[in-house]
Amino acid sequence: MLKQTVKPQFLVLAFALLLLLSSTALAEKVSLTFYFPVAVGGPITKVIEGMTESFMKENPDIKITPVYAGIYRETLTKALTALKGGEPPHVAVLLSTDMYTLIDEDAVVPYDEILPAQEMGFVKDYYPGFMQNSQTGGKTWGIPFQRSTIVMYWNKEAFKEAGLDPNTPPKTWTEMLDFAKKLTKKDASGVVSQWGVAIPTTGYAYWLFQALAIENGIELMNPAGTEVYFNKPASVEALQFLVDLSRKYEVSPKGTIDWATTPKDFFERKTAIMWTTTGNLTNVRNNAKFDFGVGMLPANKRPGSPTGGGNFYIFKKATPAERKAAVQFVKWMTTAERAAQWGIDTGYVAVRPDAWETKLMKDYVQTFPYAAVARDQLQHAVAELSTHENQRVTKALDDAIQAAVNGTKTPAEALNEAQAEAERILRRYKR
After folding, report:
1. Residues 6+ positions from 311 with CB-CB distance below 8 Å
2. Residues 317 and 393 placed together within one structural domain of the fold
3. I need a surface site. Which of 50, 346, 395, 397 has the fewest CB within 10 A?
4. Which run of H or E residues covers position 185?
5. Share of the chain above pLDDT 70, in %
6. Is 16 among the domain residues?
7. Residue at 22 is within a domain
8. Is the pTM of this model over 0.90?
9. CATH code of the domain in which 161 resides
């Protein structure tokens, strides 16, 4: 038997081939950093971790590292700071209203530049109302994920005690005021133990005020995000109504009402009615020790609420492989079944109609009909206030709202100042 010898050059070639194959395998493993805002009560981080772990099991060539970056504004600040430092996230959930800011900062890439045209049909799977804050200039910049509307919660026990039908919420501003008068509890010395209604004026003051403006027949901005209408008569009337709830009618706490503590006040029976995000639905269900109701916001000239919440954005600095992996992750996270489960776990609105046709969601709505309130309100919803340099513009409006409810300025004075500041900021974006 002849003994075969392997020439050294063949060993070198074989080793080089092995290294090439190994490096190719390593190169195919894509790692994505995923910024996620934690802003609403509930074990949302555990839900996100469970979802990302499931995704990685199904897609072992993609690694997702979630980074919990605080509330939305903090998450945006951290993402833009990381961008300037050269290491932005690959994908992030940020407010739908941050779209213009992210475009102006050249931070994100539209999905249309990642996928061929024939693969962009998936954007039609989402509610058109949510896509209003997700598309501009003929391109899709965000994909809806944790989206919401504002809804009204009420304590049914408090309604019964006040002689009100616990299953019939107020349908108009006039009715809400009438109910709130009956629901406000004061002792002989005038100390209030239960307010009739609480509409937060910190955190997302502009969002709650926008609901009042819509209900009074006005939208606060144009679709291009270059004009606002803060000081129009209908806007002033809306803010005057908000101020009057506390200062004239004394059915709501005077001064600012804190966004973060309003649900706690509701749980502790310090307020009988509250306005807040549908994203608090699971939180309320888990923590209210009394029977409660959930309904659409009361109308004045019309019913309505702004949409709200966050979209998935893909950052521009990502490589082509990272971009494609990020799209794969986004589409996986927003399938009908997962959108349904996310809505059940968190209280956010399942962002696509077919999610509501899943057995999972149908069963849930049958046992908990309030889950469908925000979905049904979408027919009356409009896009959340969104402009170029949105944080500066909304801060001007937030400051005006707080000045009015604190009594340092009249609603007209406050909104005139906010309008002037917004016009100054937006002047450069008018074409």
Report:
1. 93, 94, 95, 96, 99, 133, 134, 141, 142, 143, 144, 145, 147
2. no
3. 50
4. strand 185-186
5. 92
6. no
7. no
8. no
9. 3.40.190.10
